Predict the 3D structure of the following.
Amino acid sequence: MTELRENWLSHLINFREQGMRISDINPVAALADIICEQLYGGEINRSDLDACLEQISQDLWTRQRKHLRLQTGIADTPTPLPDLGNHDITQPVYRAVFTAHPVFALRHNVSMALCSDAEAKGAQMPDQPYAQRNVVTLQEEHAEAMAAICNARRAICDLNAAILQQRQEYQPDDWRTSLPQMLGVSTWVGYDLDGRSDISWADSFRLRLTEKAQALHIYLAALRTTGIAAAMPVSEKLDAELSATRDDITRFERLGADTNDFATTVNALTERENKLTSSSAIADEIHAIANSLDDNVKARQLMVIAADVRTHGFGMAEVHLRINAVQLRNAMRPVDGRGISVSDGMVSSRSLIDRLSSRIASESPWQINFKNLDNESATARRQLMLAAQFLKHIDCDQPIRLLIAECEKPLTLMSALYLAHKLGISNKLDISPLFETSYGLEHGEQVIDQLLTHQPYVDYVRRRGRLAIQTGFSDAGRFIGQIAANMAIERLQIKIAQCLKTRVDDEITLLFFNTHGESLGRGGAQSTMADRQNFIMTPFVRARAAEMGVPIYHQSSFQGGDGYRLFGTPALAQATIRGIFAAEMAPASPVWLADPFYYQTDFSLDLFLSLKSWHE
C-alpha cells in the first residue's frame, strides 16, 4: 500500500505544479480520474482503496493528536500564575467565544475520542474516524458548544481559586474584598442569524432558558458540595428557580406544536412571582456569606462560586446576537413611517445620523411583549426584542453583545443604538461592528471617529465603559488575502485605539473580538496557545495600546469542531485556559515597538498594497 500511496502522491504533486501554470487543471479531480481508471482497468480493487485510506487515516489521526497536544500545551509543565499584585482582578482581560458554522467535520464521538487520545500517552484510533458526518442539527451544535463551555468554565474556576490563593498569601488582610473576573466565556451558538434562517426567536429563547437551567444546576451543585450551612438559603432559592425554569423549558418546547398554547406559555413565564432575574444579587449574597466565615478555605470556595455567578450570570456564557448590516437597514425603513430612515440617495447619511442622534436624546422607549416579538418580521428588530426579553425574564444583569456583520457605515451603528434605546436595553447592550470587508478594514476608524462626534453615542460608550469592535480574519482573508488581512486588521486596531483616546479621553476599555476559523487560511494555526493569541492580537498592538493608555479587553473565537477540542476534556481545557491566561497577561515589551517592520513604513505599506492587489 505504501507504493500505491506514493504513486498517487507523486501524481498529485505533478498536477499541482501544472495547476500553478494552467488554471483549468484541478489537481484533486485529475487524481480522482486516474484512480477511477485504475479501478475500472482492474489494476486496483476496493480492498486496495480501503487499505490506503486506513493508512492515511492513521497518519492523519497521529498528526491531529500531536497538534492538539501542541495547541493546548497539555504535555508541558503548567505555566505558573503571574504575580497579580498590581492588577485589578475584577476587570475582564479575556473571553473565549464559542462559535459555530457548518465545520463539524468529525462525528462527535470521534472528536471526543481524539481529545481522549491527546490527553493520554498512546493513540487509539477508532474505526473509520473520518467517515462522513451526514448532518449537524442546531441542537447538536448547541450541545457540543455547551460541553466545551462546561469544561472551560470549570478550568476558569480552578484558575480563580489559584488567583484567590495568591491574593490570600500576599494580601492576608483584605484578600476577600474582590471577586476575580479576569476570564470568561461567550457564545453565539443558537443566536446567530447572519446568513441562516433556521433559528426562530422561540428556538433562541428556549436555548437561553436551557442554559439558565444548566447554570443554576452548576451553582447549586457547587454550593451543596461545600457543605456550608450558611449558604443553604441561597441553595433553596436556586433550587426553586431551577424547578420553575425547567417547567418553562417544557412549555416552550411545546410552543411550536400547539399554536393555541402561546398565551399560556408566555403568561406562565411573565407572571411568575419571585422569579430570579438578578444574577448579581445572588453573587453578592454568596460573597457576603464568604466574608462572614472564619474558615479561609470555605470562604475561598464560596468566592470561586460567586465569581462564576458574577462573570456568567444565569447562563452558560455571555450571549452574542449576530445579524448583518443589511438586516439592520431593513429593520429601520419603517421607523419614520416613510421607509427612508436609512435609505441611500434621498437624504445624506450625516443628516440621518443627526436625526437619529436627536431622537435618541428626546424619545422615550417602547413597551413591548412576547406577542410583539412573535409578530415582528424584521430580523434585526426581532433580535433586539429578543435581547430585551432575555434581560427582562432571564438575567437583567448580564450584558449582551450585538454583532453586526459587514458593517461599513456609521449610520448602521447609530441605527442599532436607536433601536436599543427604543427597546430600553442600551445600558446592557454592547453594539459591535464587524469590520471584515476591504472597505470596512480601510475605513473602520473613520466610521468610529464620526460616531464619536455625536454626544448620544459618546454617552452610550461612557455608560458601558467600553467600545466594542469585532474584526473578521476569515472573511477578510477571503476578500484581500490572509496576510494582507492580518496587516490591515492590526493597522485598524491601532487607529481605533488612537481615535478613542483622542475623542473620549476617559479611561474607556477597547474591546476587540477577533473572530476566525481554525485553519491557517481562516486566521487559525496549529501552534501553541501563546502563538495563537499573539497572531490575532499582535504584541505590537498590545504595546501601542499600553503606550497610549488604552485598556484592551480581548476576545477571540473557538470554532465548532476543531476549536471545541481544545476544551474537549477537563484536562485539555485547564491546559488551554492556563496557556491563554499566560499569553494575555504577558507584559507589553518596549522591544515590540522597535520592530523594523513597523518603523520602516514604506516597506510594510508596499508589501501590504502588493499582496492586497495580487489577491483582488
The longest strand covers residues 552-559. Confidence is low (pLDDT under 50) at residues 340-347. The chain has 26 helices and eight strands.
